[in-house]
């Protein structure tokens, strides 16, 4: 009996979500090569979680670094930083409190557009919104995840019986970026509820289709709800390692694993065992390859940093369509800023945020999808990945303006 009780307690302990009591998020500003080296050494030798940039390898002079430091490592990290004379700001004083404060104190499990919804709720929402808007929405499954969850894709647009140019948009590449899937859900609802009253949206849906993948990394997203709010990667095992998961945005055929990505399975930027080693990556890539004739834009939604990025990230070379991509991104960010004054930076990924190989946006562009963009939504680090639910609506409202700007440009500039 005692053994059974002990096994039961162990099982409960294994299911308990990770707690972050006393953990802090620090913002560092490296002002010299020595500071950069110190941050990289902290990343190598102490268990800290890089929020921005994605890994220690990407730290450069003058660009702020946000790191999540567990309570047990704080004294050591503070000692090292104090001795270095580096500028340090505490962004989140108590990470666990921020995790708990992110969700409004509402006891409802029902789906909502101004709350974060778990995967089961999103999956049910896909069925219900499609059934309620059969004239504008159809759904399909483009494949299953590693853990067997169906990857639902919604096609939104007026059914004309013939092929139309399309925009592919995905959310939820990185599990902990919860504002991203919230935006895809908002977009779908906004599209169907404003069709017929909003002239711009009506024109877009009459003339184009939107392929929307509300959550790409479903296994990781589910795990970030059940076990570890800070989980980033997929949930596939890695041969020869106890570390789980691959960074799906380092897993595509775009300078794969050359820069800003790691071949170490324990790294948050692990590129995978091979190009498209992750079934989720392969499912997405296969769908876009199969629909290459109609997919004219690729939009992938991440957080955080308030940026609108375009190719390239795996090289500092400018894309062939650089001037047009820059012009469109500036128009889109200007439209976004017009609503609440939220400032975005626009530019090519490598130069604007950091070099990173294997990204889906670069892959899509090299495939021939000219208008390829990555959104990094709110904020600039005050809440980071823990953007409160109270900010979902304004974030989604302003982002809609940018998406509609890009979509209208794509529609008016066929290729």
TrEMBL record:
UniProt keywords (A-Z) are: Carboxypeptidase, Disulfide bond, Hydrolase, Metal-binding, Metalloprotease, Protease, Signal, Zinc
Q: Which Pfam families match?
A: Peptidase_M14, Propep_M14
Q: Which GO terms describe its molecular function?
A: metallocarboxypeptidase activity; zinc ion binding
| PROSITE patterns for the chain | CARBOXYPEPT_ZN_1 (PS00132), CARBOXYPEPT_ZN_2 (PS00133), PEPTIDASE_M14 (PS52035)
Catalysed transformations (reactions): Preferential release of a C-terminal lysine or arginine amino acid
Query: Where mainly found?
Result: other
* Gene3D superfamilies documented for this protein: Metallocarboxypeptidase-like, Zn peptidases
Question: Biological process (GO) annotations?
Answer: proteolysis
- Which Gene Ontology cellular component terms are annotated? extracellular space
Answer yes or no on keyword Lipid biosynthesis. no
Q: Where is the active site?
A: 376
Protein EC: 3.4.17.2
Q: Does the keyword Metal-binding apply?
A: yes
Please list the cofactors this protein needs: Zn(2+)
Q: Where in the cell is it found?
A: Zymogen granule lumen
Question: Which PANTHER family does the UniProt entry name for this protein?
Answer: CARBOXYPEPTIDASE B (PTHR11705:SF20), PROTEASE FAMILY M14 CARBOXYPEPTIDASE A,B (PTHR11705)
Spell out the family assignment given in the record's similarity comment: Belongs to the peptidase M14 family.
- This protein is called Carboxypeptidase B
Top-down, what is the taxonomic lineage of the species of origin? Eukaryota, Metazoa, Chordata, Craniata, Vertebrata
């Amino acid at each position: 009996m005692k053994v059974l009780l002990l096994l039961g307690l162990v099982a409960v302990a294994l299911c308990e979500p990770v707690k972050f009591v006393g953990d802090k998020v620090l913002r560092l500003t490296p002002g010299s090569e020595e500071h950069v080296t110190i941050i990289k050494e902290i990343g190598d030798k102490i268990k800290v979680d890089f929020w921005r940039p994605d890994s220690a390898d990407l730290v450069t002079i003058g660009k702020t670094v946000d790191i999540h430091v567990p309570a047990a490592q704080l004294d050591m990290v503070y000692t090292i930083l104090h001795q270095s004379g580096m500028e340090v700001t505490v962004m989140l004083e108590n990470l666990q409190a921020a995790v708990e404060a992110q969700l409004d104190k509402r006891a409802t499990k029902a789906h909502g557009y101004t709350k974060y919804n778990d995967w089961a709720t999103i999956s049910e929402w896909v069925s219900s919104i499609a059934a309620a808007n059969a004239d504008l929405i159809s759904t399909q499954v483009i494949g299953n995840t590693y853990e067997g969850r169906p990857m639902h894709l919604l096609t939104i647009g007026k059914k004309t019986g013939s092929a139309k140019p399309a925009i592919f948009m995905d959310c939820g590449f990185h599990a902990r970026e919860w504002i991203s899937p919230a935006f895809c859900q908002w977009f779908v609802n906004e599209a169907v509820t404003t069709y017929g009253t909003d002239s711009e949206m009506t024109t877009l849906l009459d003339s184009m289709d939107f392929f929307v993948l509300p959550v790409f990394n479903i296994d990781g997203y589910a795990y970030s709800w059940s076990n570890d709010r800070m989980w980033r990667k997929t949930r596939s095992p890695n041969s020869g390692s106890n570390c789980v998961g691959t960074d799906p945005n380092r897993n595509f055929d775009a300078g794969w694993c050359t820069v800003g990505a790691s071949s170490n399975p324990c790294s948050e930027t692990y590129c995978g065992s091979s190009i498209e080693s992750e079934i989720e990556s392969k499912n997405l890539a296969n769908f876009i390859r199969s629909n290459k004739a109609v997919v004219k834009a690729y939009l992938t939604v991440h957080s955080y940093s308030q940026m609108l990025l375009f190719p390239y990230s795996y090289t500092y070379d400018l894309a062939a369509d650089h001037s047009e991509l820059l012009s469109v991104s500036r128009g889109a960010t200007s439209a976004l800023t017009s609503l609440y004054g939220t400032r975005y930076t626009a530019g090519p990924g490598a130069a604007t945020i950091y070099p990173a190989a294997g990204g889906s946006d670069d892959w899509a562009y090299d495939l021939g999808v000219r208008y390829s963009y990555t959104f990094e939504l709110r904020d600039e680090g005050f809440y980071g990945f823990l953007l409160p639910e109270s900010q979902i609506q304004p974030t989604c409202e302003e982002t809609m303006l940018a998406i509609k700007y890009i979509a209208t440009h794509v529609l008016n500039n066929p290729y």
